[in-house]
Amino acid sequence: MRTLREQAEARVTEHDLLPVETMSPAEIKALIHDYQVHQIELQIQNEELRRTQNLLEEARDRFDQLFNVAPVGYLVLDDHGVILQVNETFAGMVGLPVRKIHGQSLSNFLSPDDRTIFLGRFRAFFRSPEGKVMDLAVAGAEDVLPVRCIGRREFGIMPTTPWGGQPYLLLVLSDIRGQVAAEEALRRSEERNRAMLRAVPDAMFLHCRSGAYLDCRSSNPDQLPASPESLSGKRLDEVLPPDLAEVMLGRFADAMASGETQMLEYELDQGIGKRVFEARITPVDNQQLLTIVRDVTQQRKMEDVLLRRERDFRSLSETLQLELSRRERLEELKDNVARIVRHDLKSPLNAVINLPALIAESETLSEHGLEMLDMISVSGHKMLNLLNESVQLYKLEAGDYSFQGEWLDLGQEIQRVGQEVEHLLRRKRIQLHTEHGKLGAGQADLSRIFGDKALLPFLLSNLIKNAVEAAPEDTIVAVRANLHQPPERHESEVELELHNWGMVPEAIRDTFFEKYATHGKPDGTGLGTYSAMLIAQAHRGTISMTTSHEGGTTITVRLPQPRRSV
Questions:
Q1: Residue 1 half-sphere exposure, CB side, CA atoms within 13 Å?
Q2: What CA–CA distances, in Å, run from 24 to 31, 34, 37, 530?
Q3: What is the rounded average pLDDT of the residues 215-239?
Q4: Burial of 522 (0-12, 13-18, 19+ CB in 10 A)
Q5: What is the distance between the alpha carbons of residues 78 and 102, in angstroms, rounded to a whole number?
Q6: Residue 542 forms beta bridges with which residues?
Q7: Is 94 exposed, middle or buried (0-12, 13-18, 19+ CB in 10 A)?
Q8: Which candidate, 513, 478, 482, places its Cα nearest to that of 496?
């Protein structure tokens, strides 16, 4: 390429040359001056051109940067939807370099569903894009990307491009994922709100502060004083009775003044009988109020029923309290009578016990008569023992008992009980065996046992008598005594086992030691095992029972024993 000087020399002709040889020195000097000034002007113009060029290059770079790194996608499309120019943002959306996008149709980068929509609408959009919006789904590198498209039609403002003389469409694509998510969340929220409103059994009214109906909602038309269409725009006094409308307007004024929810309960006859309603009035803003009305007719009826039942219950409770007090007085009276009877019976019993001996000494009686007197004396002793036992049992139940232990002869106590049941042993042909266990290598010393002399004989008597009564005929009733040292206790224990070959009826196994538990005994009181349990507990001991068809019945009593003094 030739230099600017060569191009200038080629343009200069002979005619353009100045006749310097004919010019005076002053003219030559002025000419040189003019050329020097012109040269400086050209230098200044050249500097301005360079500065302008730099500014244009900076503007171009800024435009290129803004175009490519903008947060939205920019595309230039021709009238067929072919991409003439695109920025880096859109290239990032579809996951391709810019050079592979040029010349392709925009429809190639859309989801299959939106491709048909775009092709069907693009021609009209290209001709007149102002005020129009297209929501499309771009098939991105990883997922479908929802975008919103707005456009502007341009013509001939880029003469440096191959398509500078043609009309084109400048398309802006905005990522609307957040907006779509927000719209979806709003849609779901509206659906939930509508579902909640449908499910709410209350009627809701929107009023202006003057009382006019603006809107209403109810799942039950019976709760509305009129149809929703006829309510709109009406005043309260046009729908409700005048006195009720006046009261409700007063609540409206209170709600507006205080900003707090006001309550109102009222009755209204809507053609299906009187109904009771509860209204909650809440200000929405300084011009509107929301009134939520609930039909509480059934609730009030139930409250009335509950109040009546509560009154009946209180009356019944008072009656029961009176009856309980009466029974307590009767029980106290019964206990007093029992104590008096026990006390008063002892005097005649002493006579019954002692007089047979005096009669036997003073008169000559036959052997049969002496036997009869002896039976009277034995029966008197039995009655006295029963009275003493009942006194001790009463003390145990009343909590008035105080343990007073001493050493008793175990063998004598067992022998005494054996004598009491001797007639029953003979009748049933039962043998009463007493067995002593071992302690270490030697014989355990169980000749004496520590206990209350007023209670322990009753325990042995009750358990041995029950065992003999429950034993089958021609069997053995065994009383075993063992002494052992439990590892968890510091003192030794006497273990008494009473075994018979009878079996406890299943009906009373779980209640065997409870009061009045008896079965199959016409004259049984159910107090024997119960009193044995109380006596064992009074000695800080335990009592238990096992029974089976194969092994018979065993009652085990364990009583703590102190160290014996030498």
A1: 1
A2: 11, 15, 20, 163
A3: 76
A4: exposed
A5: 12
A6: 558
A7: buried
A8: 482
Residue 42 has which token pair? 């050209």
Closest CA to 451 of 554, 536, 566, 565: 536
The partner residues of 493 in beta bridges, in order of sequence, read 484, 560
Q: Name the pTM for this structure.
A: 0.39
Tell me the residue length of the chain. Answer: 566
Alpha-carbon radius of gyration of the chain: 60
For the record, the structure tokens of 162 come out as: 């191959």
Average pLDDT over residues 292-303: 86
Task: Answer whether 153's CB lies under 8 Å from 126's CB.
Answer: yes
For residue 487, give the DSSP letter. T
For residue 304 the two structure tokens come to 């009335």
φ, ψ of residue 402 to 5 degrees: the values are -125, 120
Angle at 543 between CA 537 and CA 545, to 5 degrees: 155
Phi, psi values for residue 456, rounded to 5°: -60, -40
Mean pLDDT of 329-351: 63
Q: Record the tokens describing residue 294, joined without a space.
A: 């609930």
| Integer CA distances (angstroms), 254 to 84, 205, 281, 457, in order | 68, 17, 9, 86
The predicted-structure confidence for 369-390, as pLDDT tens digits, reads as follows 777 777 776 677 667 666 666 6
**How many C-beta atoms lie closer than 10 Å to residue 92's C-beta?**
14
For residue 468, give the nearest of 459, 458, 455, 478 by alpha carbon.
478
What's residue 389's pLDDT? 66
Q: What is the DSSP letter of 272?
A: S
Tokens representing 391 are 């006194």
Q: Are 235 and 212 in contact (CB under 8 A)?
A: yes
Q: What are phi and psi of 325, to 5 degrees?
A: -60, -40
Q: What percent of the chain has pLDDT over 70?
A: 74
pLDDT level of residue 441 (50, 70, 90 thresholds): very low
DSSP of 303-331, one letter per residue?
Answer: HHHHHHHHHHHHHHHHHHHHHHHHHHHHH
Sorted by sequence, the CB contacts under 8 Å of residue 205 that are 6+ apart come out as 213, 215, 216, 231, 290, 291, 293
Residues 469 and 521 sit within 8 Å (Cβ to Cβ)? yes
